[in-house]
Design goal:
The chain is an alpha/beta fold. It is 42% helix and 11% strand. The chain folds into 2 domains: 127 residues, SPOUT methyltransferase, trefoil knot domain (Alpha/beta knot), CATH 3.40.1280; 58 residues, Orthogonal Bundle (Helicase, Ruva Protein, domain 3), CATH 1.10.8.590.
């Protein structure tokens, strides 16, 4: 939940709470356990909610609308700006009961492999939280990639000349009959959009190919 920016956790009739194992597993998200609301029943937990979504992978013969978690996240993001929205998950062993699911307004399901739909609770919660985050944000990274300096055409041409010189030196390229081999090599590197630093690295390798360093004997 914390990874995806959610912080309101309700626990319905937990077997143990507070729980040392839960705190250990939470690591730096233990503050969500500190602020968790514990209720005796699902009715109490969702009493003030305007939209209640049951997240379940089980097929049910209920009258509620069924949609994917992505669709449910979109619906939630639209309502959550002014209304209370609850996502309801069952326990690890049995999931949501039919009675519990019937208290929800709609059912959200993860479109998994129909031949094997099993997901543990943590996975299901994370997927739903991720879809919510994508629904309420633009999906951009939380950090900006540093711009890199691409090699200029002049630097590339000097690299190609150096490369060709070394290929002739090692006998890989016949200068009298190069055919289209070197053209293909140029295209290969052109597709890579080489950075200035990468060209420097490659030329360093070429220089050592021409004049290898003498290795000390151990």
């Amino acid at each position: 939940m914390k990874t995806m920016g959610l912080n309101r956790l309700y626990l319905v009739n937990p077997k143990h709470f507070p729980d040392s194992e839960a705190r250990a597993l939470a690591v730096n998200a233990a503050d969500l356990l500190d602020t968790a609301v514990v209720t005796a029943s699902l009715d109490e937990a969702i009493a003030d909610c305007h939209l209640v979504i049951a997240v379940s992978g089980k097929e049910r013969s209920l009258s509620q609308e069924v949609m994917t978690v992505r669709e449910a996240a979109s619906r939630s993001s639209q309502m959550a700006t002014a209304q209370q929205v609850a996502l309801v998950f069952g326990n690890e062993t049995n999931g949501l009961s039919t009675i519990e699911a019937s208290k929800c307004h709609l059912l959200a399901t993860i479109p998994a492999n129909p031949e094997y739909t099993s997901l543990n609770l943590a996975q299901a919660v994370q997927i739903m939280c991720y879809e919510l985050r994508m629904a309420v944000t633009d999906g951009s990274l939380h950090y900006e990639e540093k711009p890199v300096a691409l090699a200029t055409q002049d630097e590339l041409e000097r690299f190609y000349a150096h490369f060709k010189e070394v290929l002739i030196l090692i006998g890989y390229l016949n200068p009298r009959a190069p055919k289209k081999l070197f053209e293909r090599l140029r295209r290969l590197y052109a597709r890579a959009h080489l950075e200035k630093e990468e060209v420097n690295l490659l030329r360093g390798i070429l220089t050592l190919t021409q004049k290898p360093k003498k290795h000390e004997k151990y």
